[in-house]
Each structure stands twice: as structure tokens, then as C-alpha cells.
Amino acid sequence: MQKLYSELIGMSVLTEYSATPVALIKDIIIDPDSGKVLAFRVNGQNIISSMDVESIGNSLIIADRDRIVPINEILRVESVAKMNISIIGARVIGNRSKKYIGRVVDYAIDTKHLSLIAIHCAKVFVFFRFNEKIFLYKNIVKISKHTVIVKDSSEILASEKADAISSAFAS
């Protein structure tokens, strides 16, 4: 199953044996190199490691309240958080053309594998969105502090054509 960033932010965090929320999701920390969710930021500098997530549905379920830890307890999460990379609002640029495509307005997470599936990109003017596009994770070249570089449409088409040809020969 997949969930959008916009659906996850503000989601309640519950323990397995309590229906009372112990926290709310404030942000998601994603490894820019692998696209894996490393942690969910909750109250202040506290996080829930992706390894401690039992399930995600209408709420995020953890075993117990002790799974909420300070960010500095997990070195990889702390180092990625210090990079201060925010995917939401990042400029989306074509790899070869260097053409501005828009800004990331949302993204989808695979709730089973806790990884980035796709980014939702649009050109934004005041409160209006136009030229909305979705780029699958496999078409993302690089995620950096203020920019997401994606394959140009010609690169995507060539890649899909090559995949179709190789699967035809495999059959």
C-alpha cells in the first residue's frame, strides 16, 4: 500500500495496545541516496526509526512508547537530518536538459517497504498548480538539498522501450 506525504503528516502514532495517540508525525526523514525512509520525526528532536514501525494504515503503529527516541541515538538518521534535505518544495530539474519542470508538491511512500515510490511535481503560481507530473523513483537521478534531478522524458521513453524489448526477448 502507498501513502502520500500529505496523508502521513499529522497522522497519529499509536502503540500496539493503546488507542491513545502517543505522538503525531511531523516530518519524514528519507535517505537521499537510497530513497528509503529512515525515520519519522515526531515531537521536537524525537524520531521513530523505520525499523520500529509495526504498520501504517490510518495511523502509525509502534510496539511501545520507548520506540520514540532522540534523533542523536541513531547516527545515520542524525547525519541525514543534518543535511536538511526537504523533498517537499524542492525544484525538479531535467537531467540532460537542465530544464525547470516544477516543484515537488507531494510524494508517495510504500508503507510495507518504507521507501519512496514517486514524487508529485507541479508548477505553482500563488495557490494554483499546473503541469502536474508524477516521476517514479526509478526516474530520479539525484536528491539534494533544494533540488531533485529527474530523467528527461526522452530518457524515460528510451528506458521503457529498452525494458519492453528485453522482456519480449525473455518470453
Describe, in short, the structure shown.
By secondary structure, the chain is α+β, with helices and mostly antiparallel strands. The chain has helices spanning about 5-10, 75-80, 155-170, and strands at about 1-5, 10-15, 20-25, 25-30, 35-40, 45-50, 55, 60, 70, 90-95, 100-110, 115-125, 130-135, 140-145, 145-150.
Q: How far is the first residue's CA from the last residue's CA?
A: 29 Å
- In percent terms, what proportion of residues is strand? over 45%
Radius of gyration over alpha carbons? Answer: 18 Å
Q: Could you tell me the mean pLDDT?
A: 92
Low-confidence stretches: none
Helix content: 10-25%
Index terms:
171 residues; alpha+beta; 7-stranded mixed β-sheet; 4-stranded mixed β-sheet; 3 helices; 18% helix; globular
Outline the secondary-structure elements.
Layout: E1 2-4, H1 5-8, E2 12-15, E3 18-24, E4 27-30, E5 37-41, E6 46-49, E7 53-56, E8 60-62, E9 68-70, H2 75-82, E10 91-94, E11 100-110, E12 115-125, E13 128-136, E14 140-143, E15 147-150, H3 153-170
